[in-house]
């Protein structure tokens, strides 16, 4: 006569109930920890209230603006932008920044990649670069727009910078946020062969995060 080694249905049901309680307890602990962490991050965020960085266009000049054909442009633009972190307790990481110049809503240079950097509390950083467009495609109306601005004596150039930022509070670093910076340079028009077109005064840039 041999002993039965199989477990009864009642015993199996009890084992399944124990596993269910264990999984439920682990899920409850994990959910509680996650909720506490998210709440802590939210409280810190609301207390510190990070302010978006401020940008101003310090210098800008157009060294070349030639139209070899009706639909192509050779351009060279140089700029200097000041970036300031107005926060006293929040640092900012800048990632994947790209800049380009536009005129009358038309992009006139290729995008240039700016090096990533970290900006401490209240720090000011200088961003400078040269933007070029060799045989850059433009609309057929571009030549007309340039000639009209020559007659008026003023040229309005747009400099745009886009990328991603991360906020740093202590050792905690946030996820990435997209940032867009738009700067306007007003220049007195003159023939470029006699010298570059340069802006006259520093201007504040608009920033969205």
TrEMBL record:
Source superkingdom: Eukaryota
Residues annotated as transmembrane: 26-48
Localization annotation: Membrane
GO biological process: one example: phloem loading
Entry annotated with the keyword Coiled coil: no
One GO CC term on file: plasmodesmatal endoplasmic reticulum
A UniProt-annotated Pfam family: LEA_2
Domain Late embryogenesis abundant protein LEA-2 subgroup: 81-183
Predominant cellular place of this UniProt entry's protein: membrane
Membrane topology classification: Single-pass membrane protein
Record flagged with keyword Cell inner membrane: no
UniProt keyword list: Membrane, Transmembrane, Transmembrane helix
Protein name per its UniProtKB record: Late embryogenesis abundant protein LEA-2 subgroup domain-containing protein
Taxonomic classification: Eukaryota, Viridiplantae, Streptophyta, Embryophyta, Tracheophyta
